[in-house]
Every structure is written in C-alpha cells, then in structure tokens.
Design a protein that fits this description.
about 575 residues; alpha/beta; GMP Synthetase, Chain A, domain 3; 8-stranded mixed β-sheet; 17 helices; globular; disordered N terminus
Amino acid sequence: MTTLDLDQTTQVSARSAAPAAAPAGTPVSLPFRHLPDMVDRTCERYARQHAFTAVLPNGMFGNLSFAHVRRDADRFAAFLREELGLAAGDRVAIQLPNSLAYPICAFGVLKAGCVLVNTNPLYTPAEMIHQFNDSGARVLVIVDLFGDKIAPVLERTGIEHVVLVRLTDRFSRLPGFVAYNVIKYWNRLVPACTAPTISFQEALSRGARHLHERSVDVAAYTAATSPDDLAVLQYTGGTTGVSKGAMLSHRNLLANVAQIEERVAGNVTHGAECPLAVLPLYHIFAFTTNLLYFFQAGARNVLVANPRPLSNLQRAIENYPISWIPGVNTLFNGLLNEEWFADHPPPKLRGSIAGGTALHTTVAERWQRVTGTPIIEGYGLTECSPVVTLNPFEANRPGSIGLPLLGTEVRLLNAYGEAAAPGEPGELAVRGPQVMQGYWQRPEETAKVIKDGWLLTGDIAEIDADGYLRIVDRKKDLIIVSGFNVYPNEVEDCIAACPGVAEVAVVGLPDAKTGEMVKAFVVAKPGAALTAEQVREHCKQYLAAYKVPKAVELRAELPKSPVGKVLRRELRAEARVTHQEEGGVNG
C-alpha cells in the first residue's frame, strides 16, 4: 500500500482490502520525451484507427484517424510558425468546444513549440480580454458560434491573428456541408463576424503548402524542447479567486498520464477503448483524461460539443461502443434520470471516472445498479495537472477519493501549518511530479500556495488506516457549478460594479441539477430602486452563464466581523436552512 508522508507519529497500517502500491515519492518515468513526441509515436502506432469522432445531436458525425490527426497537427504547426511568424514559447489561445478541430489545434500549438492557453468558449468579452492580456496570447482560435465577440476583444488585447473554426470542420465533405448549413441557416447559431479572420481550413492549406513546397521539418520546432518547458497555461482562480494561469510543463502533464496509467493498468486495453468526451476538452479534467491519457492509449474519443440537454448524448451513446465515461456527479445523476439511458445503458461500458466535484453516494450506487459498472472517484485540481488521487478499480471505496497516485506524497496540516494530529482532518498538501511550476507571472501568488515544494490545496481531508482519503470541506469558499469553478470574489467584484449596489456577498448552495448554485446577497445604496433581476442582467453582461447568480436576495445589511469583514459562513448557514425548508432550487 502507499506509505504517506504525514509527519505524524502513527504509520498507516496495511489491510488486505487496500492494494499494494509503490511508496510515495517513487520516481515517475515519463513515457515520452515531450507532448509532441507523444502525439507522433501514438499516431504512428495506431495510424489507421479512429482517434476522434465528433457527434452532433442529429446523429451526423465526422471522424479523424490517428494518421490524420498527425498530418493536420503538423499543418497547423507549420501555419503558426511559417505563416504567422510565431516563435517557440509564444502563447496561442484556443476557444473551442469539443470538435475535430480541437485536438488538431491543441497538438499543432504544442508541435509548434508554442504554449496552449485553454479558453472557455462561454467567456464574455470582458473575461476573454483579461485572460488574453494576462497570458500575452498572440493568436486566437475560436469557433464561429461566438464570432461576434471577436471585434471588441481585438481592440483591447494583443491578439494579432484570429483563426475561425466551424463546428463541422474536418467532417467529410457532404455531411459537413449539410450539417453546417443546418447550424447556420436553420438553427441560426452563427452570428455575423466583422473582425478580420482566417478560416481553419485555409490555415491548414497554408500550413500544408509550407510543408510540401518548402519541405519544412515540423520536428525542428521542438528539437530543443525539454520536459520542463512550459506546455499549457490553464487558467484558474486557485485559492484566491483572482484568475491566473497555472503553468503546466510537458513533464507535469506526461507524469500525470503515466500516473493514471499505473492506477488503471489492467482495466484499460490500449487500442480498444471508446471513451465519451462529454466534459469540454478545454477543462483540465477532460484535457488530461480524454485528450492526453485516452489518446495515447489508442482510444477512440467520441466528442460531444454540447451535452445540454442530455438528450444530445443519446446518439453518441447508442451508436458507439462507449467503454468509459469521465464526468461529474451532475452528469451521472442526469443520465440516470433520462429514460432512454436508464432503459438501455451502454452495453460495452467498463467504468466511469468522477472528478470536479464530490460524487454523491446515492448516485454511485444507482449507477452501479443501472449500468452494472462502477464510478471510480478521484480528486484533483488544475494546479496538479490535475489528478492527485484515484480509487483503484479493484478496490473502489464509494465516498472516498481514493489513494494518492504513483510518486505523489500527501500531508494533512492544521490551522498553524503543522502536521494534523493522527485521525484528525487537515488541509491537504501535495507534492509530486504533476504539481505545476507556479502561476504565470505571479510569484507572490505562487508563494502563497507552494511552500517547500508542497502545494496547499485549500481542501480539508481525512485519511483512514488504509490510506484512503476523503474530502470533508473546502477551506476556501469555492463554488462548483456543473464541475466548473466559480470564485465568489470574481462574482462579487462584478456585482459591486452594478449601479445601485452598496455591498454584496456570494455563497454556494446545493442544487439538484448543477451540484451547487450561486446565490448573491446584495445591499442597495440608499434611495436606489435596485431589483434582483437588474443584478442578474448586469452579471450576464460580464460573466459566463454558470457564474451568474441563480438567486439574488436584497438585504438591508450583511453580517460582519468586528473588523468589518463580511461573514460569508453565516450567510451560507442561514441560506442553507431556508434552502432546505423550501426544498432547494431545482429550476
């Protein structure tokens, strides 16, 4: 079993129920030199097999073989370096939903020796402006469904070039033509775009010309790349709520791939799996699990651009031999409540992986009954690439986040930063090869969370005698809506700028559909005729939809400490009582 460095006098005892594992701190061997090496070797090994299948709600689909992924990623890399003049280390923002273009662009950026900046397509222009200016991104790759956001962003950022992607790009010609015209003319989902852009197809064509006419060697772009070079800027609020980029190196991400492989060995058959990619690939959970781990395992990732409503998943689940489903509690719960799923669960399903937020025991038990397969719960955070712990498939313990991965050490710390007493909960601290290099250009923020090589997660955990961990609370006030992090400080700052608002506090409450919901308590300025709907409408202009408060309560005052600090915990406790009495919010 895993020996945990707890700085406690008691040692973790071994029981037969816990599987044997390498000691914490065991070196993790990287399976590849860097991420481009992973792409090339994987594509060579599984060249003729399907790597990605994108499925639209109407059942229309497009496929990419591993050979085509490599070919197109090379073309996009050549376009970035030769056509746009980017250099190694330059940042490229990718703002795409799950689609065939996403892996091509992501791998192309990495093969160009550049740094990938994952960006949520649902971001408002204000959020895009902050992230692009902070990262220094020079190129933006964005889906045409949000093309109307580009012009105001270009005026206030250093973005020099924009590549516009269609959801149906890389589909076969006739299905792609039909599907795109349905999206654009029947569904009217493609807005007018007034900004100067280049189409994704044209970008690939120009890249191809450089490769063939000038005999450009894409491998030269990463010839000097080391495992410790920066690969991805993954934006997160961390433990403070200020959006910042977690610097994830090639080593960080490849180590996490190797760690996941060691934990699931024997349960994943390379070259034969078919995972469902419901969570967006720009989210660190799906990025590492689907785009990196299952890709290098030779799996066929089935991509769903928009899982809402959940009926959008029906064609993908019914038409393909889905064997794994990485997801969050609300996804699993929602699928169980879909009649088509409950009556005909995926016959080839082997298991599911839960993360992002706590998995409810009732959901896990019902999933086991309906599908005949387990949900394996794990724990991670953006700063850890992201997986820290994962339940072993053969010794899964519902309610637990499992055991630390290979090479991962954990400590539980008390309020004074010292080792928690044996048996007592404490803040979970992590050390391992998957821990980020730090926050992009924010050394002070980095110093707050990484101390002597240990990352302070801000989550309170308990550990049992077998080394299994359980998260019991959040040290910070993070709210998780459908697996997405919402930071109260960010929402409060937005609401504070709303005309007529004097004070505001934001908390999270349980929600049957999304796991948690955002609730805002607002005090209006004297004489201001402020309404809850005005506050929500203001938020919709500046925040992604999942961050917008689902409930707004106007109050005469907010509870405060003697020094004037708003007491969120009192508001949360009071609101939860009222919330439970009213039966929760399910709308």
